What we know:
Elements: E1 7-11, H1 16-27, E2 31-36, H2 39-51, E3 58-61, H3 68-79, E4 84-87, H4 102-130, E5 133-137, H5 150-170, E6 176-182, H6 200-208, H7 219-230, E7 239-242
Helix pairs in contact: 1-2, 1-7, 3-4, 4-5
The protein binds nicotinamide-adenine-dinucleotide.
Nicotinamide-adenine-dinucleotide binds near residues 17, 37, 65 and 139.
Amino acid sequence: MSFTGKVVIVTGASSGIGADAARHLAKLGAKVSIVGRNEKRVNEVADQIKKFGAPTPLPIVADVTRDAQRIINETVKHFGRLDVLVNNAGIFRADNVVQFDVEQFDSILDTNLRSVIILTNLAVPHLEKTKGNIINISSVAGLRPFDLYTSYCISKAGLDQFTKCSAIALAPKGIRVNSINPATIRTPIFEQIGINKSNEEQFFEERRHDYLVGRVGEVSDTSSAVAYLASETFLTGLLLPIDGGLMCSGIRTSLPGLT
Length: 259
Ligand code: NAD
């Protein structure tokens, strides 16, 4: 699989899933715009990419909720084209219908959904020229309810509908739109719900038992899926769970004489 000559934007590329996807696509030859809010961390990822000899990336210090136009403009001005948009930036907070904060709800929807719609809208004319594609990083929380992450689930379920509606709308322009829907992937995102260095091993050990494969996901699991969907596939409108079997949620049964 080669992305030589292809230009990719990865939002939220200063950490976790986005940082690894940016490194992986760059290793496969892509020229990558590394988008994130934290200048130091954006530059660190860009430096890592430069060190392994991949095409020089473009660091863009930007907030997806405010700077969508600048993210697209700087990329196209610098690299001259756009082939793949990876909408990855996202935030994770706990709430439910009883413990609900409207400002937090607005912030989750603003980052995880509204910004994706605006960025995608602005990217379409450039992706149409290259017959490019879009990958939205959703979550299994878009596909299944988790009561303590109500607003997050709503944001990702909305994102999944956006993926599917956009796949239909953009097919005549030759643009494919797909989603990956990860389950627990070992990244710093869980700091946002109180998981830190002191309790993360216990947290991931407990989560391990949620999955048929007996482990949580790693960023390499999501990066290979991003690269696959970004390549010349026959797929559009797909929501691809990267979930260790979580969506295969049957009920374990036993009968006399049968286990
Ligand atoms: P992370 O916290 O390590 O990385 C998220 C990145 O998004 C960070 O770089 C953060 O700064 C950036 N970001 C957040 N708001 C932004 C904004 N307004 N503008 C620009 N950048 C912004 O988390 P991660 O686990 O790598 O998550 C990446 C995506 O994957 C998110 O959309 C998340 O919802 C999704 N996801 C993660 C998991 C998981 O278990 N880690 C599971 C399912 C889905």
